[in-house]
Automatic annotation (TrEMBL):
Listed Pfam families: UPF0102
Source species of the chain: Halioglobus japonicus
Full protein name: UPF0102 protein C0029_00640
Similarity section: Belongs to the UPF0102 family.
InterPro entries named among the record's database cross-references: Restrct_endonuc-II-like (IPR011335), tRNA_endonuc-like_dom_sf (IPR011856), UPF0102_YraN-like (IPR003509)
Protein origin, superkingdom: Bacteria
PANTHER family in the record: UPF0102 PROTEIN YRAN (PTHR34039:SF1)
Regions that span the bilayer: none
GO molecular function terms noted in the UniProt entry: nucleic acid binding
Length: 117
């Protein structure tokens, strides 16, 4: 379901841009992992994990970003900072955009968790 995930990431990027963030990278990949979106929010670098759930009997979207996933995102973000800025002294945060479809797929419920971890 990679194409469905891609569409949610595209939707989240557009949604965040409407909220005033500037998307600077999508799907940053390295040997350590992947970061869905990297954005700038008033001078702060934001690493964004996009999560979507269509079946509510499994863990809700925000809860699916467990400790293991957080550690992987931190390591990948460190790699990005060292590659892009040659330093880790950059003010940044980790956000989660959780998308859970409602009755209408065109109007999903969105939960934006700033500084999620």
């Amino acid at each position: 379901m990679k194409s469905l995930g891609d569409s949610y990431e595209q939707w989240a990027a557009h949604w965040l841009e409407q909220k005033g963030l500037q998307i600077v990278s999508r799907n940053y990949r390295c040997k350590l992992g992947e970061i869905d979106l990297i954005a700038c929010d008033r001078g702060q670098l934001v690493f964004v994990e996009v999560r979507a759930r269509s079946i509510s009997r499994y863990a809700r979207a925000p809860e699916s970003v467990d400790q293991r996933k957080q550690d992987k995102l931190r390591r990948t973000a460190l790699h990005y900072l060292l590659q892009r800025y040659q330093t880790t002294a950059v003010h940044c945060r980790f956000d989660v955009v959780a998308i859970e479809p409602r009755q209408s797929p065109d109007n999903p419920a969105v939960r934006w968790i700033r500084s999620a971890f």
